[in-house]
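Usage

Read records sequentially. Each one opens with the input sequence:
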Amino acid sequence: METRDSEHTDKEGYYSLECPFCSEQFKGFARDINSKEVIDLFCPSCGLCSYKENFQPHIKLEKPVKVTLNDLREKLPTLKRVYGVEGKEQKTELYKVTSNLESTQENYNLETIEMICCNRKIKIGAKEKRTSVFCPYCGVK
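and closes with the structure output:
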């Protein structure tokens, strides 16, 4: 995960993360996630491990995809002319890009849990809290 600025964190400095396997959403402190010693992350819920880049929330990926599709829509008439393809042109946007895509992720109740094994804190949804949680940094349950 590339080092991101404070624009991508919540008010307390946590990044929103999502497990690529079970889609569990959780948050990790930005300093911990950006640490060079953290290469992989473990899901606090299912315990599966993947590169930290794979824990990008789905909602963060939607905006670039929508912008790209809208850009392609604008360039389509030019491409049709260049390649000699005829067709009906439409001037509407394919997708509407909203300015606050993270609002859905910020609205659920979060509980801060200290991972004693690594002396780091994470946030998980209160409804997802279990008797045991996997540490996202070392995988200890």
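Summary fields computed downstream for this record:
- Residues 58-101 form one domain.
- The chain has two domains: 6-57+108-128, 58-101.
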